[in-house]
Amino acid sequence: MIDTGKINKHNQEILSPHTKDLDYLKVKVGEDKSNEIIDKLRAFQVAIPSWALGAGGTRFGRFSIGGEPATIYEKLDDIGIIHALTQSAGAVSLHIPWDIPDDAEKVKRHASDLDITFDAVNSNTFQDQNGQPLSYKFGSLSHVQKLTRQQAIDHNKEVIDIGRALGSQSLTVWLADGSSFPGQLNFRKALENTKTSLSEIYGHLPDDWKMYIEYKPYEPYFYSTVIQDWGTSLMLAEACGDKAHTLVDLGHHLPNTNIEQIVATLMYKGRLGGFHFNDSKYGDDDLTVGSIKPYQLFLIFNELVYGMDNNPSNNPDLAWMIDASHNLKDPLEDLMQSIDAILIAYAQALMVDRSSLEQAREYNDVSLAQEILHEAYRSDLRPFVREARSIAGGAIDPIGVYRKAEVRKKLIDKRGSGSRATGL
Ligand code: PSV
Ligand code: MN
After folding, report:
1. Chain segment 84-137, per-residue pLDDT in tens
2. Of the candidate ranges 12-16, 243-247, 410-414, the one whose mean pLDDT is the lowest
3. pLDDT tens digits, residue range 338-380?
4. Taking the complete model, does pTM exceed 0.85, yes or no?
5. What are 238-264's pLDDT values in tens digits?
6. How far is ligand 1, taken at its centre, from the CA of residue 25, in Å?
7. For residues 206-221, b (16+ Cβ closer than 10 Å) or e, as one string?
8. All domains of the chain in start order, with CATH
């Protein structure tokens, strides 16, 4: 649907203004530093979840824009379009059982033809599936009944096996378990059960795998969640072993939480495993990355960059994934906007004058420290992001090409105008 010819043609049309912007920025930032930033942006890859490509909306209603993918192959095709245009989305994260591969080798081949690899596989014990013997209504890995816990443990083991067949190397566990009313749950027993269940799943991990433990303070339960915060996740990860890490989903925090400090703390402990990007105004994790709080995103990346460059605790490479709902937008455009926001924040963080910042901190020069951050944050680094994409063979302006090539219209012609996607 996107051929290199189209990308090249469009790139030529906007090459001149882009080159001018880039030249200006390179003079300002310096050739070496500019090239270093562009190289790092080129290398950055973020996974697209297989559930992000369907009809948008909320749990109250979904509104199809047509042409949505119905099968795992079509979902991969959509990610292939995003990757061809951005060169930054070379991985998919599958949710099981929403996207069980019918034939692992065939799915792998399809992905590989699109230059897509398999990032973390996600288990699902927050919904009951057809024919499932025991319900998760009152929890899964923390459930009061051993048999229900075992069913959820076995599901996670099966997800690991499916991931192995695809070449994935990590499992993400998001545990929805919790309670909606005071008194409903014995907090300590629920935590103990969760620890034991996670340890059993951990025992099934291949040596070269990692397990990511996601936390969330509320939803779907509204009084308590068993893994409510990073501290609980870290405690469980430490109890499991070296291959277990905490996963930070930006939307899983109460308003005004200092997420950048959480990032710093987890990296200090060498236990930050992965990241789910999104944004929110009031709560939840539904909006396009960088659409509401771009400064916070920059501050988070500032800690990530510092943590990656100063890593005595051997924090592993991070698993990056977009986990947002596009709501009213074309999912593919929304994902490309998210990728752009991530790369811009990353570029800004790479721009921070670290030695001057450390010096300002040594002298307790608060104003200067703030000025140094602002200098990086307020620089328009979009030409670096565009250049990184274009060098890699992507589009200088991905959404521009996507619209010019009328990709959505073609998808609708091919797949129909009704909503067909599975997932949340
Ligand atoms: C839960 O809100 C979450 O962030 C988890 O990562 C899930 O797997 C994903 O969203 C999809 O519901
Ligand atoms: Mn998430």
Report:
1. 999 999 999 999 999 999 999 999 999 999 999 999 999 999 999 999 999 999
2. 12-16
3. 999 999 999 999 999 999 999 999 999 999 999 999 999 999 9
4. yes
5. 999 999 999 999 999 999 999 999 999
6. 38
7. eeebbbbbbbbebeeb
8. 4-415 (3.20.20.150)
- The residue contributing the CA closest to ligand 1 atom 9 is 323
pLDDT of residue 286: 84
Hey, which of 93, 211, 228, 276 would you mutate to test ligand 1's pocket, going by the most ligand atoms within 8 Å of its Cβ? 276
Q: How far apart are CA 81 and CA 332, in angstroms?
A: 8
Residue nearest to atom 10 of ligand 1 (CA): 323
Q: For the chain, how far is it from start to end, CA to CA, in angstroms? A: 27
The closest residue, in CA terms, to atom 1 on ligand 1 is 174
What band does 410 get if pLDDT is binned at 50, 70 and 90? very high
Q: Ligand 2 centroid to 90 CA: how many Å?
A: 19
Which residues are within 8 A (CB) of 137 and not within 5 positions of it... i.e. 6 or more apart? 128
Please give the distance, rounded to the nearest whole angstrom, from the Cα atom of residue 417 to the centre of ligand 2. 29
Three-class secondary structure assignment of the chain: CCCHHHHHHHHHHHHHHHHHHHHHHHHHHCHHHHHHHHHHHHHCCCEEEHHHCCCEEECCEEECCCCCCCCHHHHHHHHHHHHHHHCCCCEEEEECCCCCCCCHHHHHHHHHHCCCEEEEEECCCCCCCCCCCCCCCCCCCCCCCHHHHHHHHHHHHHHHHHHHHHCCCEEEEECCCEECCCCCCCHHHHHHHHHHHHHHHHHCCCCCCEEEEECCCCCCCCCEECCCCHHHHHHHHHHHCCCEEEEEECCCCCCCCCHHHHHHHHHHCCCEEEEEECECCCCCCCECCCCCCHHHHHHHHHHHHHHHHCCCCCCCCCEEEECCCCCCCCHHHHHHHHHHHHHHHHHHHHHCCHHHHHHHHHCCCHHHHHHHHHHHHCCCCHHHHHHHHHHCCCCCCHHHHHHHCCHHHHHHHHHCCCCCCCCC
Q: Which atom of ligand 1 is nearest to the CA of 249?
A: 4
Q: Cα(174) to centroid of ligand 1, in Å?
A: 7
